[in-house]
Amino acid sequence: MSKKVAIGVDIGGTLTKVGIVDREGNLFAHTDFSTTKHKEFGDYLDELKSHIEELKSKMDFDYEITGIGVGAPNANFFRGTIEHAANLLWKGVVPFSQELQKRYDLPVFITNDASAAAIGEMIYGEAVNMKDFMVITLGTGLGSGIVANGQLIYGHDSQAGELGHVMIEKGGRLTGLGRRGGLEAYVSSTGLKRTVFFLLSDMMDDSVLRDYSYNDLHGEMISKAAEEGDPIAQAAFEMTGRILGEQLANFTTFSHPEAYFLLGGLAKAGKWIFDPTRKHLEKNLLPFYQGKVKLLPSGMMDKNAAILGAAALVWNNTES
Amino acid sequence: MSKKVAIGVDIGGTLTKVGIVDREGNLFAHTDFSTTKHKEFGDYLDELKSHIEELKSKMDFDYEITGIGVGAPNANFFRGTIEHAANLLWKGVVPFSQELQKRYDLPVFITNDASAAAIGEMIYGEAVNMKDFMVITLGTGLGSGIVANGQLIYGHDSQAGELGHVMIEKGGRLTGLGRRGGLEAYVSSTGLKRTVFFLLSDMMDDSVLRDYSYNDLHGEMISKAAEEGDPIAQAAFEMTGRILGEQLANFTTFSHPEAYFLLGGLAKAGKWIFDPTRKHLEKNLLPFYQGKVKLLPSGMMDKNAAILGAAALVWNNTES
Hints:
Shape of chain A: globular
Oligomer: homodimer
Helix content of chain A: 25-40%
Distance between the termini of chain A: 21 Å
């Protein structure tokens, strides 16, 4: 009997990652290519197909492809489209699944990357036995995938889980989309950096971070400085974790998850982000939630989370 | 063939309401009695049984009882319990379903009143064809029942949908449970009254509301004053609707509902609460949600919502 596999495709603003994965999470072949090379969507799909064919040629056992799962910004799960994605070249509404199915007679499932991450956590990660949890991705922005009753929450028009845009402070930091005070302006890799620069203005302490320009400062430098006792770096993590903890406590009143999983660049800072977040989450939870809500690193952190999450979409939508 | 009916029981802090309802929402017989008469939970259940038997004796056609649905504060759907309810006499964990099933060999389902209201909206109200919506109950406090993917969100330990406790302002109004700044301290019948008293302190305008003590002022008087052009009453509704609208915009980033339904005393104020809420909801929605999220009066507003919501639990959990 041939082995069932899924193709996972993660479309990022810069790179597209593709891989072939089985139900157990084995990644048999993978590659990546530039998302920005093709202005024409059809040309992009042709290149995607050539990479998939190349990966297929490397497979050295009998297999059967169950479907193709795709994580992409502004993806609409119900319509199989990518709609008005600000950081992709293809404007308007792109009929992704329909066009890909002209090239492959296979089921195609598409959703946004944080939702794919949540499904990945459920299929391959640490949420295998959980029915209620959230994955929070902390990269350039803050993404979220919400699972309740064992199902991903898509929402009425497939745009649930935009928690990076929760307004946490009136007239606060500019957030994009012309808004101020959105959560991701504070809690994300970018948010942490903005907080460092706020604290450089607010505090008087010496800090190695005073030697970097905004454009030169990267997240790992902030972790390293915190590790070496830098007061600005440590205060930046404390403030970031406080805000995240307070907001996770608020989110708990919504769907009462068993656990929050953190994934992405900022999550790699380990205790520097987990400790203050956990402290302020617990402190702000209502009494009947206290001690019941876990804050955990994603089980996908050291895996190829983006490809696996996309592939997991296939199993999630084809298994009954 | 005998007609299938459900028994709906709504346990409030003061009154318990009981009725017999069919799948179409016909309420054939109903009554109420004091919740606070019996300190012993067993005595209370005996009285509940005597009322159910009395209602049954009034039925003048062949019927079959499918189950008993119960709406109660601090109910745990998974365990069938009422746990540490602050406004009931029975302390600790009350094994409600188990004890009621000693008296009736029927399925018993219990959940909190706002969740029952959401299921009522789905079975009997205006959400019959919706898969993603929320019911917000605006009474003494703010309750919420959240439906996503066509299912009520219960959460990991049955305590999802506590949106009255979302923290909206650091160091804001005392909210109960020792917290400050919780949403229901601003948006509820009580919240509206607190806002009137804040505005009486803040504004200089003449107002009929200056003639009432806090204890004597009731919601309908505020609506009536607003109707008559009273500036304090109108400003109180505007502020309440602004805060509710802002928060509904935040909630939209979670589960992207098709509609919010308002139910309860404050919702009866009609345009005075709906107009400012709708305006500030729309203003604060992210661009891709704008024009897509409805704010509607609950379809249960003029019905016996509490009994019907409780009865709806039976159909929701016995139909496949």
